[in-house]
Amino acid sequence: MTVFEQVTRNFDVIDTNFLLTWKVRKKDKSLLYFSEKCVGCQLCQEICPVSAIEYGPIPQIATGEIEAPYILIDLDKCIFCGLCAVVCPTHALLFAFNKKQIDLLNDYPKISGRIEISDECIPCKLCDLVCPTKAFKLELEVEKKENLVTYEEEIPPEKVEGAIIIDKEKCTYCGLCEELCEAIKITWVEPSGEFLRPGIDIIVDEDRCDYCNLCAELCPSEAVKVECKTPLERTVREPNIRGSLVLNEDKCIYCGWCAFVCPVEAVKYEKPFEGEVTVSNLEKCDPVGCNACIKICPTNAWYIPKRSLEDEVTEKIAVNKDLCVFCGACQNSCPENLITVTRKEIHVEEEIPHRPWTTSWKRDLNRLINVPLPVKNFREISLKPVEPVEELPSPITPIQKISENMQNLLEEKAKIIEERLETPKFRRLLEGFTSRKPNSSSKP
Is domain 8-112+350-367 annotated with CATH 1.20.1740.10? Predict the structure, then answer.
């Protein structure tokens, strides 16, 4: 053991991920970067107090011209403060102190959104189908129609007459009717910022339909109307839906997709940031040849509007601002600099803990929304002119090596100081946060 412990720093590449570690005796810090989760939003670079993070050619990476990570972290500059992991909206950066992730520690600020799913949830397929990060785990079991309808006589469905109408404007494509009955089929598609629904068509094979009305009873948006014209003696039991919807918040980016498509308004959410997105000089945009903003957006908020005969003028590119989390990835990806993302509000879960570095944390966080801290007025102090320092005689006498006994004594003293510094009470006293309370019984 020496008086001053050696700090060990390492940079390891694991598949396509980076692992940076910092260790000294009983303390260790780690920063793990998942390149496949990163979208090049540069929030980590903006908040880094020592400029340890650099970004690559984001437009070329977004369009697939270059295969490379969006960011690089300078191990020599990194001070392992963890702020980059605090603001990362896609969980591409994980920071741990003594093997504990900082979102589990009260000593760090927490920037995050909020999502709540009420008991009104049915559940259905929608959240799982539209979520851009696949943050939901759905377990759904709908009792089949064959087990719910019992006839007094065996009557083939083709001999049953009736009518069924589905209002496709009201239909949310939750998928429950398709799970219930094999006569109903939905044409599934990838949802976009323009068309939020995961389906584009729903059809009924009336040769297999016996107009039992179960689909109408099950539909949460009341989009199905059924009329059975053939007199029948049958028993129709109420459909039973069993299942659960579990949110993995380590994947959730609080974009609000689930809330917008929920047919019963069971989802409430709050984004980590609020702001605006503007697009200018659209004549320079080439959405067909570029597509960078569409490919890089973590929430699938960007889209190319569908042209119709009725629209004389259609924008080349558009964004659904309700789905935007204002991370800035689209702005960084645009090769023509046509996109501007302005963050106006940042949501901090709790008040930032009071520490000697609290002010610098607030300053760095406010820099993300262009809000400066209040300027403090300092009093002026006049200083006397500095007198010239005499040059040391040459040659300098070398410092003599201390004895082994003195070395052991210094190491013992250093160990005592280190143990004291690990005590919270001692650190607070040293930092000036603890003051002696006056004795109420003492005389003035």
Answer: no
d(Cα 387, Cα 381) in Å, to the nearest integer? 18
Q: In the numeric block, which tokens belong to residue 16?
A: 């396509």
Between CA 96 and CA 77 the distance in angstroms is 18
What's the Cα-to-Cα distance from 231 to each of 147, 159, 183, 216, rounded to whole Å?
21, 11, 21, 19
Which helix (H) or strand (E) segment holds residue 331: the answer is: helix 329-333
114-118+249-346 adopts what CATH topology? Alpha-Beta Plaits (3.30.70)
102 close to 96: Cβ distance less than 8 angstroms: yes
Q: Where are the domains of the chain?
A: 8-112+350-367, 114-118+249-346, 137-245
Give 359-374 pLDDT, tens digit per residue: 788 888 888 886 544 4
Hey, what's the torsion of the CAs at 328, 332, 333, 336, to 10 degrees?
Answer: 120
Question: What is residue 146's DSSP assignment?
Answer: G
Residue range 278-331, pLDDT digits in tens: 999 888 998 888 999 999 999 999 999 886 445 555 678 999 999 999 999 999
